Structures are given as structure tokens and as C-alpha cells.
Amino acid sequence: MNILARLNGLTRSTAFGMMVGLACSIATPAHAQNDKMVPVAVPDQPNAIVLGTGNLPDNAAPESWHRQYEKLFARNVTVATLTPFLPDPAKANGTAVVVAPGGGFRTLSMENEGWDVARALADRGVAAFVLKYRLVPTPEGMPAFEKSMADMFAGVASAPRPPMTMESAVPQLAPQIADSRAAFALIRKRAGEWHVNPDRIGMVGFSAGAMLTLVTALAGEDAKPAFIGTIYGPLAAVKVPADAPPIFVALAADDPLFAGKGMGLIESWTAAKRPAEFHLYEQGGHGFGMYPKETTSTGWFDAFVKWMGMHGMLKPAQ
To answer: C-alpha distances in angstroms, 80 versus 36, 223, 249, 260, 282?
Structure first.
């Protein structure tokens, strides 16, 4: 019996609800200008591949998009998709990365934490795949959506915050884990077409996407990422199996959501004698992603790519 089946009967914990609220990157962005949410038409996504994990039946609102901090966000996603960003064949090295944007499982920062990351990876010879995973329903209209988010954060601020555990997170994230697993399955199925080594598929996630990346690696038994990166995600301690993948973690010391709460995640990985690299930047806040900033947190991407290279992931696949 897999871990999802074992945990399916657990009581729904308030811990996950708190962490979802904390993981919503739109609340405390690093890029403070143009923070007003402006609705936009759903953009064309001609290369997006439907993953076939089904619709979320409890969301009647259509998928909608808005612009904030000069970048595009999606919400009310009920059908998961995967969008490939393939490198120039002359640069391709056979490594692939699933990119999981953040947004508190209520929105997805599709540009700053998705497409921009994928394009940068493809430029380094890495095949990148942006995962648009299914989301918690939100009100259709923008004013009602904004109010719902304000109410959520007010509740988070006033309530105690129990620590996240895999036992509390996994049942709550069942749809998103299914989407992540389907992404890995699709990439492996089409590995020959996309010139990807099936044993060199990693995953990087941001905020809520970092949480999804963690549970994909620790509870998504058939996904088995070759390596993972969690960018401004939670640092709570987890149970790390003996075959856990190498992990790269980046966080700003002034992150209002996850900084200053210990480094249990790093300690868990190193205690299990699994490779771990941790970058704690002095400044950067939460949600810096690929935004150009004067803080050293902007260097996380170059550090991540160098780390991948240290693990042999940038060498041409044999």
C-alpha cells in the first residue's frame, strides 16, 4: 500500500491550512511595485499539454488570470497542464526539470516562478516543464477574490501555527501530487522525443510549489525526482528516506513567512546522510523568483545551476 493510501484516512489537520496561507507568495512579494491585481484574458498556451488527471468537481468558476507585479498569475485552475520549454538541440544535455510555481495553492505565479525559470533552464541546455497544477477554488470576481485572500491571511495571523508534517500535507495535496506524478510519467513516456534521460529528471518549486516538490520527492513514490530544489519554501523537519534525492534550498533571512523558524529541513536531510545545499540570503523577502533585484538573492538561479553541474546534471547524457 502506498503512502497516499495509508494516509488517506487521517483527520484533516489545521496545520495544512495554515501552511497554505503562509505559502501564498502574492501576499508578501519581493517586487513591491504594481501590486494591484488587474484581470487579463486567459493567454494562449499553445504548447500546454493536458495531463489527464481530471477536473476538480467542486470548482464552478472558470480559470482566470491576472497581472500583478508586472507578471501573470493564474487561478481557479481545474485542469492540470504541462508546458515544455526545450533547449536548442546543440545545447541539450539530457537533464530535465519540472518547474512548480507558487501561490498558496490558490494562484500560480506562472511567469516569475514558471515560464521565466523554464526559459533560463532551457538556455543552459536543460529541458524544463512548467507544471500548471490544480488549485483550491476561489471566488470568480476579483473583488471577492481579494477579500477571500485578505480574510485568509487575517485568520492565519491570528491563529496558532502548528508545524507542517507529511502526514497532514499529503492527504490535502492529493490532486496536486497526482498532477506532479503525471508530469513525471509524461516526461518519461516522451523522453526519446524530448531528448531527456529518464533518470535525470528533477524538480524545483517556489513557496507552495516548494511544498509540492517536497511531497513529490518524499511521498510521490513513482515520481522519484533525481534532484530537487525548494526556493523560499518551509524549512520544517521531515522524515527523509535513505534514497532521498539531493536537495538545494534557498531562502532569504528576511522572508516574513519561513525565515527564523529553524532549519529542520536541512538538518533532516543531513542527518539522513543525503546531499543538501542551503543558501540563506541576507535580503530578498518572499517571492523573489526571477525578478531582477539588487540583493544577492537574485543569484539563487546561478547557484542552483552550478549545483546541478556539481552533481553531473549538465554533462551530456550518454
So the answer is: 26, 16, 26, 34, 35
- 144, 13 contact by CB (below 8 A): no
Decide if 253 is inside a domain: yes
Q: Is residue 124 part of a domain?
A: yes
Secondary-structure breakdown of the chain: helix, strand, coil percentages, each rounded to the nearest 5: 35, 15, 50
Residue burial 273-289, b: 16+ Cβ < 10 Å; e: rest: ebebbbbbbeebbbbbb
DSSP H or E run through 67? strand 64-68
**Dihedral, 38, 39, 44, 45 alpha carbons, nearest 10:** 80
- Considering its fold, how many domains does the chain have in total? 1
User: What is the tens place of the pLDDT at every residue in 210-240?
Assistant: 999 999 999 867 899 999 999 999 999 999 9
- Kindly report, residue by residue over 3-54, the tens digit of the pLDDT: 333 323 222 333 344 344 444 444 444 445 578 899 999 999 999 999 999 9
316 lies in some domain: no
Rounded to two decimals, the pTM is 0.90
